[in-house]
């Protein structure tokens, strides 16, 4: 389950079990939600549908994520470092800024293998 460091009862995520995976969804709708911990195992897939982002396991992943803010900061870093200038890049960076200021809601989806 996902919880907020400041208030463990603040947000609870929904969890769905599939045949081979468990899907956890975390709704991020305020600045406080940016500090919800992200619990993703090394084999897990992380998605942010509103941004069109999917993070899959691989060698480029060096450190585990700590919270939603860390996730957004890493997405910004990839966009800034590896994506050429484009309208889409500008739109994504603007959306991330709105999310960080609590003006835009997103859902973070974590798919992990069922144990």
Short recap of the structure:
The protein is an alpha+beta fold and 115 residues long. It has helices at 68-82, 87-100, and strands at 14-17, 21-28, 45-48, 53-55, 106-113. The chain has a single domain (14-113), classed as ZPR1, A/B domain (Jelly Rolls), CATH 2.60.120.
Number of alpha- plus pi-helical segments? 2
What is the CATH C level class, in words? Mainly Beta
The main sheet orders its strands as 1-2-5-3-4
Q: Determine the CATH topology.
A: Jelly Rolls
Notes on the protein architecture:
It is a single chain. The chain is of the alpha+beta class and 115 residues long. It has a single domain (14-113), classed as Jelly Rolls (Sandwich). It contains 2 helices and 5 strands, in the order ββββααβ. A 5-stranded antiparallel beta sheet has the order 1-2-5-3-4, with no helix packed on it. Helix 1 runs antiparallel to helix 2 (87-100). The protein starts with 13 loop residues before the first strand and ends with a strand. Mean pLDDT is 84; it is low at 1-10.
Task: Jot down its keywords.
disordered N terminus, 115 residues, alpha+beta, 5 strands, Jelly Rolls, single chain, 2 helices
